[in-house]
Amino acid sequence: MIPISTTHEHRDKIRASHKRSLELGVERERVQPAVVIKSSVLREHLKKHHRLTTAAGPFVKLLHEFVADSGFIVMLTDGKGCILQLTGSPATLAEISPYSLTPGAYMNEESIGANAISIALEENAPIQLTGHEHYIKAFHSWSCSAAPVHDEKGSIIGCINISGRLDKVYPHILGLVIASVKAIEYQLKSSFSEMRQKEAYRFVSQILNTLEFGVMATDEEGKVKRANNLAARLLRTPLEKIEGSNLQEFISNWPSYFKQVQNHDPVLDEEIHVSHYGIKDSFNLNVYPLTNGDGTVSGTVSTIRDMKRVYKMVNKYTGMQARYNFDDLIGESDEMNRIIEYCKNISDSPSTVLIQGESGTGKEVLAQSIHNYSSRRESGFVALNCGAIPESLIESELFGYTEGAFTSAKKGGKPGKFELADGGTLFLDEIGEMPLDMQVKLLRALQERSITRVGGDKSIEVDVRIIAATNRDLLEEANKGRFRQDLYYRLSVIPVYIPPLKNRPEDIPILINFFLNLKSVKLKRQLPDMDNRLFKKLVKYDWPGNVRELENFIEKYVNLGGNLDWADQIMSPPSHKTISRMGEENVGLSGNLSGVTSVQSESVVISLADMEKEAIVIATKTFDRNMTKVAKALGISRNALYQKIKKYGLDV
């Protein structure tokens, strides 16, 4: 209820307002408001109070229709008394024109003295003033009735006023104003609730549309009440067509899923297939019940994820991602530069790649580099070592299996490497070890670009780029009947051969320096001094285990702090070949190091600084004074390289 003042309170409010008007210096002879804002400012002011004028506008119009013919005017002001709307008959408006009561004029005490609007806003109560109760003489022949307007929080945001000549005043005018204010405030509360509902709807919509999976909410009959944009994209159907449709139109097995959920049993991680416009999509489906307060199921919330995205997440969190790129291929020999440039050029081709080379040459590093340089880099790099999987399991590893395919098959089945690599790259390492019967199935999958899970009959299309690797001569294996010739030609569309380390000796000093620094950091050990003769022997050695053997030797060397006497005691048995004979026989460095010990005992251990100087000299000669390549090989910047040359006084 809006409080109405008693006669005593009424007089006290008017008396207090008159006193304030006098103290503010308002002249009783004042005719027009002292404060009137310009039209340009008024436009912005009206925009600011758009919500009030929108809610009050219809009621101002209604009041005008009710009292205009009686010579009354209706005013709507803001919370500070600025007129926002003024309406009345043309004759009445013409009569009051000398008073400049127009939109933009302020009706507060400082501007025009005590009046119904100023007191209603000051006292936060409805009031009616007649004749001499107004402060200025110009209003002594008028009667004004006003009441403040509040927003949904109870704050004053405006005022409604009806004014007319004393001889035309009606006793019910103030009640009419109060009733109108109540209606306006109700409208403001309703619009606020509606606005909050719209804001909540927009907020929920924004959240739904930021999710990385499709969402659809249904009623108890399975009719979609709400869906997000991603659901529309995944189902290849406009959002407005999804909402209002039954989910059975998109998910063929929906009735059984819905029945399961009605028993409060959610559907979790079901793989479904949806066909639209001849395109078959696979999704991961989850369905959860929506319940009423009494526990009854009133609807469902379903989520769908593109299986390609699911596989991508699986690959990400199970390490099936390519970590290496071409910068990780250490070496500046002409042969390595040619291989890197060639592989960059063919990276984006969908054709199969066959990488051949001895063990330890870096075939998987090159395969990952090709993947990461291609447009498939955002998808998975899935590797399978064909020589490490038992024959009985290799088919299910490659193609996956369905539920019940064999005794230990998981519920719901399991995707194979082909499906996990969909959109990305499948790396088949040691392809030469694959059994002949599996080679036939692999060839069929490559030709048809589709697979069938073990125990299933559904053909699943896959978009996979194949990179295979082997240390065997597959063509020779094919001639001996140990590898299918048709598969060999299917795999070797783009052949790449990585030469052994002995065929690119200029890369050995770079690799030694690289691994010394890398292993020292990785093992948190101080970079050990290296015997000068040992360094030269390492450069001349054949390295039958290639880069892997060199890396392993350097790791042992750093682990032992360069103490080869200690190494000799804990390494392999003396019967193994040693580094002292590496000029005579092609052997590995994983054996006994007594030969190295004798070399070390006969030589002077050089300091780290001398080793650094020699590394700079060797690298400079190796790269024919190409300082960019020298700096890169040494793992330092060009500026650092020039500073070291100057520091050591090297003539390079």
What would you say this structure looks like, in words?
With 652 residues, the chain is an alpha+beta fold. The chain folds into 4 domains: 7-193, Beta-Lactamase; 210-305, Beta-Lactamase; 319-499, P-loop containing nucleotide triphosphate hydrolases (Rossmann fold); 502-606, Helicase, Ruva Protein, domain 3, CATH 1.10.8.60. The chain contains 26 helices and 17 strands. The strands form 4 sheets. The chain has a 5-stranded antiparallel beta sheet with strand order 2-1-5-4-3, with helices on both faces. It has a 5-stranded antiparallel beta sheet with strand order 7-6-10-9-8. The longest helix has 36 residues, at 173-208.
Question: What is the name of the CATH architecture of the largest domain?
Answer: 2-Layer Sandwich
CATH class identity of the largest domain? Alpha Beta
CATH topology of the largest domain: Beta-Lactamase
Q: Cα distance, first to last residue?
A: 98 Å
The total of helices stands at 26
Percent range for helical residues?
A: 40-55%
Shape: elongated
> β content, as a range?
15-25%
Question: What is the domain total for the residues?
Answer: 4
CATH superfamily of the largest domain: GAF domain
